[in-house]
Amino acid sequence: MRPLQIPPPPPAAPDAGLDAQRCYQAMADKDAAWDGLFFTGVTSTGIYCRPVCRVKLPRQANCRFFETAAQAEAHGFRPCLRCRPELAPARRFWSTTDAQAVLAECAAQQLQSAIQQGLKPPSMAALAAQLGVSDRHLRRLFLRHWQVSPLQFLQTQRLLHAKQWLQDSPLSVAHVARASGFGSARRLYAAFAQHYQLSPGQLRTASAPQRKAPLPGTALVLPYRPPCQIATLWQFLKDRSLSGMESWEGQGPDAVLRRTVRWPHASHAITGWLELRWDRTQAVVHLRVSASLDPVLPQVVAQVRDWLDLDAEPARIAQVIGRDFPQALGQRLPGCLDGFELAVRAILGQQISVKAARTLGQRLVNTLGEPCNTPWPELNRTFPSPATLAREENAAHMGSLGLVRQRQKAIQALAQAVESGNLDLSPQAKVEPTLQALMALPGIGPWTAHYIAMRALRWVDAWPVQDVALQTALGVRQHPRPTQALEALGQAWRPCRSYALIAAWQRLAPQAERSDHPEPHNHKAHTQ
């Protein structure tokens, strides 16, 4: 397989927006590094495609390039049924220079994320208030930046989201309509007829053979932008895996990961399992999801993408941190499947090694984990729920497992806050209020709060200046004021300091095993 070259992101211009020659060359090379960064409308067919589409290369004179699928559809193009634009990795819009671009890109990010997570998208008035501008001003900036209105952008996201689940899942048309924000099957049929000249039934019939899998569950393919340090990410997760709820088959980047999942649905929770395998011949991850998770399938898949950081843009990240961390090209920021689970693991890991934290986590799962049926006997439990860990009678259980009283109190306070709904640890939560809410809990200080926000809330700009390992890796440990020195140093790597943090930790990895959370139990003393 030819080594993948990572190009710089296409430069934006006020009118054209993209460099046509660069985009056409990426199409000719079928370069997955550009996947999702632009779409190509072909005037001779009326179809728009991803750069990786395997159809015959069209003439350059017939190609029109667009930054988003919404722009292509606004110009009358329909999505390709072969490369399927809805499967392209999502864009993480960000800018550090143009304030108007920041507002337009943040608005697009919020709308796109809501549809992917199966949530109701915010109104433009609510979004404008959140961003601190007027509704009219935000609409004007959005149209100027993306060349489509917010409504057109949102409608395209809904259509592509619905198209994906009609083709890839056994979900009913009514379920897909609700998950995509159409509200009813009738509206979904009308939108497909108007925009794609297709019915949902036609899409489902055409894709029925490929949905039939010899193994249980729903089989899906999740694309990402290469390069990707698969071995590093897989080892990070494997070092922290807990038997009974996570299992591995094979070694290195070819290993298959299976794990149990508990997911909130309506007024209760449902359990199931996932299986993940990286494809070594193309830039995709193969995912299987148990049938029990069908009611929340779109949300689960969106969370898996966050967990493995599949929407990362290596070229943009390298532009910011690549000079100081050249070894970080293709590095991923490990997320999580359950924010509460990640937060409990973070507390368990304070001041001890990764191996010791894993031992405590294993005892917790063995004692208080809940049964879960899977096709694999060794995979039979889920992580304890917030309701379970919030019960006072379970404090004695945690004490018998070797958890000191301070950690018991921290875990129970965390569980009570999540169970009551006062603390949201999902990627949709706002970072600053969540940090403050976490640090208000006993036993959780700035370091643990930043670590939880980085992995559970997908905060790509976390920078815990109190971290001794980070100070050591970057050579400021002996500085008279190491936290101030580290804060100043980190300014050069904004807005993706979390990637610099992971890269700095990697420098220390060969030297000795270290704790993820070197934070004292008395965080108030630590902050003084």
Automatic annotation (TrEMBL):
Reactions this protein catalyses: Hydrolysis of alkylated DNA, releasing 3-methyladenine, 3-methylguanine, 7-methylguanine and 7-methyladenine
Instruction: Provide the leader sequence positions.
Output: none
Q: Which cofactor is recorded for it?
A: Zn(2+)
Q: Decide whether keyword Transcription regulation is in the record.
A: yes
Specify the superkingdom: Bacteria
Q: Which CDD domains match?
A: ENDO3c
Q: What class of enzyme is it?
A: hydrolase
Pfam families in alphabetical order: Ada_Zn_binding, AlkA_N, HhH-GPD, HTH_18
A cellular component term, taken from the record's GO annotations = protein-DNA complex
Q: Is the keyword Cell membrane assigned to this protein?
A: no
Ordered alphabetically, the record's keywords are: Activator, DNA damage, DNA repair, Methyltransferase, Transcription, Transcription regulation, Transferase
The UniProt entry, under InterPro entries, shows: Ada-like_dom_sf, Ada_DNA_repair_Zn-bd, AlkA_N, AlkA_N_sf, Alkylbase_DNA_Glycosylase/TA, DNA_glycosylase, HhH-GPD_domain, HhH_base_excis_C
Annotated HTH araC/xylS-type domain residues: 105-206
Query: According to the UniProt entry, what is the EC number of this protein?
Result: 3.2.2.21
Q: Which GO terms describe its molecular function?
A: alkylated DNA binding; DNA-3-methyladenine glycosylase activity; DNA-7-methylguanine glycosylase activity; DNA-binding transcription factor activity; methyltransferase activity; sequence-specific DNA binding; zinc ion binding
Q: A biological process (GO) annotation for this entry? A: methylation
Can you say what this protein is called? DNA-3-methyladenine glycosylase II
Query: What is the species listed in this Swiss-Prot or TrEMBL entry?
Result: Limnohabitans planktonicus II-D5
